[in-house]
Amino acid sequence: MGKNSKYYGENGIHRVPLWRIGGFALNNTATNLYLFMMNYVAYYLTGFVGVAVVTASSFAMMMRIWDGVTDPFIGYVVDKTNGKFGKNRPFMIIGNVILAVMSFILFHVTHLLPENVAVRYAFFIICAAIYYIGYTFQCVVTKSAQTCLTNDPKQRPLFSVFDAVYNTILFTVMAIFGANLGAKYGTYEDLGVFHELWLLVVITSAIFTLIAVISIAPKDRAEFFGTGEVVRVRLRDYWDTIKNNRAIQMLIVSASTDKLATSAKTSTVTVVLFAVLAGNIKLQGSLTGLVSIPTVFLCIFAISTLATKLGMRKAMLIGSIGGIVANALLALLWMFGDPTTMSNAEGGLNWGFFTIAYVLLSVAFGGFQGISGNIVIPMTADCADYEVYRTKRYVPGMMGTLFSFVDKVISSFAPMIAGLMFAAIGFKDKMPDVGTPYSDELKYVAIFLSYGIVIIGLICNLVALKFYPLTKEKMAEIQAEIARIKAENTAK
Question: Which of 260, 379, 262, 361 is nearest to 315 (CA)?
Fold first, then answer.
């Protein structure tokens, strides 16, 4: 066991210092920064490339499918890799470098090409295809490294605590930053918007990636990989896993429908809610900031108590039911309430019924979503351990990318769903923006994309979890069996 032997306990359980779990969780935050930046890509495509709204929305779908298609191949390479710098760290660094370089080209070079829509769009697509390969490089590690980070059932869910906190803070800060950019430039179709976004994202993501690399370093070693024995992995093994690993099947159904639902709430939908329906885009930043702090504490409490005591399956079940109730109430609030009352005469925040109800319900939903959404990543590690238990194959890259492939292909339709719904009510050439006038059609579309489709995704969770086999008790059995196999291999 070497210098890491102090992290081993009974039944082959290996642990890690808590700060390393928190540090490694920043790898997911690093890629989520780029995900946030790409939420604004439709504005760049319509404003500087010259494509129509539906085409811009289709681009996001096409690229996400491409991102998913590359996943299994990159996962296969990860499973084959075990060099001087480990299995995971090289992909984190290479991926982040590709993201930084290609995102610069996307938003700083495309508009300098000749004013020909076909030429600019083709260039953008090619660069974006390379960009998403880098995105996959770094993303696959978030899931694959979970298995070697820790297999302690009380420690593994703690990744979700850190991830939930980081993502809440990230999307709060970025929402405020994005709202301020909209107010500063008066539109999102301005080159200054994309330069400021790029600069912030690249620098912050690089710092987070460095911390994550340092954090995973001592556990990115063969002694923490599966049974401790090298097992040959073939591409045809992917089919066997898809066909027979019920745990990953159900997790894919649950997570992909959730991602489809939450991804449909694009930056444009948020602009409609606050700039058009509420009449004040600055409310987005103010309210997001107010909601974030209690949401963080609720996530920490919920995951650290529910997931560690009841198991991750039950924790996701509770999170899904709570999310359905909170979203239904939020939809009713926006449908029948008056969001314009959130602003006072000076344009500041007004604490009336609508504002108080919105904040309380948003905090509740954020807490429940923090459970059901963030618990997915450590649940993927459970599915990988189940595959070791089932077949003795340690294939965390395959497991993570199989999950990501289906997840991304399904959720890729989210921007197109939003684009088609906006186009259906008259926004065919230009997305709704800060200065767009109110209409009932915009109201109904925004409410459905914000809350209605999320409820549908959470209902799918309940169905999938009914057939998900990895209970707390089953995972204890699995870890004991893996420890027995590892002991046999060590004794050989």
Answer: 379
Evaluate whether 151 touches 133 at the Cβ level (below 8 Å).
Answer: no
- What amino acid is encoded at 373 in this protein? G
Q: 118 CB contacts (<8 Å, ≥6 apart)?
A: none
Tokens of 15: 């642990």
Q: Which residues contact 459 (CB under 8 A, 6 or more apart)?
A: 324
How many degrees, rounded to 5, is the angle at CA 198 between CA 194 and CA 203? 160
Under a CB-based contact definition with an 8 Å cutoff, are residues 465 and 320 in contact? yes
Return d(Cα 270, Cα 277) in angstroms, integer.
Answer: 10
Q: How far apart are CA 312 and CA 303, in angstroms?
A: 9
Q: How far, in Å, CA of 463 to CA of 317, rounded?
A: 10
Measured CA to CA in angstroms, residue 237 lies from 6, 37, 231 at distances of 35, 36, 12
489/81 Cα distance (integer angstroms): 21
DSSP-derived letter for residue 449 is I
pLDDT in tens, 197-251: 999 999 999 999 999 999 998 888 777 765 555 556 676 777 787 788 899 889 8
pLDDT tens-digit series, residues 370-410: 777 778 878 888 888 888 888 887 777 777 777 777 777 77
Distance CA 146, CA 388 (A): 14
The candidate with the shortest Cα–Cα distance to 154, out of 14, 314, 353, 360, is 14
Phi-psi region of 86 (alpha: psi -120 to 50; beta: other; left: phi over 0): left
Question: What residues have CB less than 8 Å from 301, skipping those under 6 apart?
Answer: none
SS3 344: coil
Residue 199 neighbours by CB under 8 Å, 6+ apart: none
Measured between alpha carbons, how far is 4 from 423 in angstroms, rounded to an integer?
Answer: 57
Query: DSSP readout, 212-227?
Result: HHHHHGGG-SGGGSTT
